[in-house]
Design a protein that fits this description.
By secondary structure, the protein is an alpha+beta fold. The protein contains four helices and five strands. 19% of the residues are buried.
Length: 165
């Protein structure tokens, strides 16, 4: 089926991608990555606080991890827009997000289709993480719980100062 259909986000058109388009995207991404590596361009991107780094499939496919700017999206949309309507789970890496589903208009592809937001032809806009970085929420306090308070070994249970009277 060619043409466009309406998605669940206010009826914005969603393009139906064909296998030919998919091959074109792969060729563009491969060529741009190869050209940058030949030129010696350092394109390591540092994730900022709260960004979600996704590397479930990217590393195995020879791509950099995805750095998803969560707070950039959060200031524009309510949580339910992505975590309800688009099917994103509330845990980094819990969903099986891959390029096929994105090209089919699922997950990121519901908006990043060239009509609502920029399309996926420039791989480095998303695949900007440092190679080998695992899936995680960058600088999350959930992943790094606060250290237990250090107990004062000189304090006495009765509130004394440790000296005999």
């Amino acid at each position: 089926m060619r043409g466009s259909i309406r998605n669940r986000l206010g009826g914005a058109p969603v393009r139906i991608r064909t296998p030919r388009t998919w091959l074109k995207v792969i060729a563009i991404c491969t060529a741009s990555g190869l050209a940058l590596s030949i030129a010696g361009v350092d394109k390591d991107a540092a994730a900022e606080y709260g960004d979600i780094v996704l590397n479930q499939f990217a590393g195995d496919a020879g791509m950099r991890p995805v750095v998803f700017p969560h707070w950039f999206h959060r200031i524009r949309f309510r949580c339910n827009t992505c975590h309800g309507d688009l099917g994103f789970q509330f845990k980094a890496g819990a969903g099986k997000i891959n390029m096929v589903s994105i090209l089919d208009g699922q997950y990121c592809g519901a908006c990043h289709n060239g009509d609502v937001a920029w399309s996926i032809e420039n791989c480095d806009l998303c695949h900007s993480g440092i190679p080998g970085t695992p899936t995680h929420v960058h600088h999350s306090t959930v992943l790094k719980p606060a250290a237990a308070p250090i107990e004062d070994s000189t304090a006495q249970p009765d509130g004394g100062d440790g000296e005999d009277e």
